[in-house]
TrEMBL record:
Signal peptide (from-to): none
Residue ranges of domain HTH cro/C1-type in the record: 25-73
Cited Gene3D superfamilies: lambda repressor-like DNA-binding domains
Pfam families per the UniProt record, alphabetical: HTH_26
Protein name, per record: Transcriptional regulator
SMART domains with a match to the protein in the record: HTH_XRE (SM00530)
Species classification: Bacteria, Bacillati, Actinomycetota, Actinomycetes, Streptosporangiales
Species: Nocardiopsis gilva YIM 90087
One MF annotation (Gene Ontology) recorded for this entry: DNA binding
């Protein structure tokens, strides 16, 4: 997935791998939405790397629902 596409220099190099984890688990975005209580629209914003922030409580619910660690969902790639 592409790096976050926002103008915040601090977010450059952050890659959201939610799509990959969902595919690995065979779970749709709609199913994840039901499991964690976050709208499909907000999860889509996160999945597409357009989110500017994520609450730790939301991240924890996503990790619990997918049986993964935060590092499975978000990584940093240095593009220097």
């Amino acid at each position: 997935m592409a790096p976050a596409e926002n103008d915040d220099p601090a977010a450059q190099g952050i890659v959201v791998r939610l799509d990959d984890v969902l595919a690995d688990r065979g779970i749709t975005l709609a199913e994840l939405s039901r499991r964690v209580g976050v709208t499909v629209v907000n999860l889509s914003i996160l999945k597409n790397g357009r989110a500017k922030a994520i609450r730790f409580s939301t991240l924890a619910r996503i990790c619990a629902a997918l049986g993964c660690q935060p590092g499975d969902l978000i990584e940093y790639r240095n593009h220097a």
